[in-house]
Amino acid sequence: MCELHHYGARLQPERVRISVIEAADRILAAAPPSLSAYAEEQLAGKNIRVLTGSRVAAVEADGVALAGGSKVEADITVWAAGVKASAWLAGLDGLETNRVNQLVVDTRLHCAGGDCVYAMGDCAAAPDGDSGRMLAATAQVAHQQARYLADELARRLDDKPARPFVFKPQGMMVSLGKHTAVGSLAAVVGRSATTTWKAAARS
């Protein structure tokens, strides 16, 4: 999106208009609100319109129809709306799945309806053992779940009590186009992320 602005809108700004449609009340919902606000501010500075709280009702040939009845006209529509697990997961006998085919698990990553069956990563709808909120299907969540399960299964073999999986956020980084990024990584938060992003890109 931001790259499209950089290579297209800067050449013919009168012909290229970019809109971001978000069903949630803010973009980058997994990030702190301050970072969402900063990202939206940066996008506005690039003349990119952000429509939050706008649920898509239909994608049509000439644009996107919103649930509220309005329409965003567009020649090109890029769909980037979430993750859906493989359909075959919904066909596993006795295991509960959600509307996007993820296996429903508890805070120990134990599958609902399955005896000694566990799931992790993108295929699991997993709550955080500390906050109870559903975890996003990201690489760092899956990585921590893998380490947790390896340890927890060993504990089970040793008849040790089960412990819940608690996700420990390691930060995030999102490019907002050339020379701009937003994120939080260890002690680097907000605007300082631009420098960190450049360093990471060069490494």
Automatic annotation (TrEMBL):
Highest taxon listed in the record's lineage: Bacteria
EC number, UniProt record: 1.6.99.3
Keyword check for Flavoprotein: yes
Enzymatic class: oxidoreductase
Cofactors: FAD
GO biological process entries: aerobic electron transport chain
Keyword line: FAD, Flavoprotein, Oxidoreductase
Annotated FAD/NAD(P)-binding domain residues: 17-146
Record-linked SUPFAM superfamilies: FAD/NAD(P)-binding domain
Keyword Flavoprotein attributed: yes
One Gene Ontology MF term: NAD(P)H dehydrogenase (quinone) activity
Pfam families with a match to the protein in the record: Pyr_redox_2
The family this protein is said to belong to: Belongs to the NADH dehydrogenase family.
Protein name, entry field: NADH dehydrogenase
Source organism of the structure: Chromobacterium violaceum
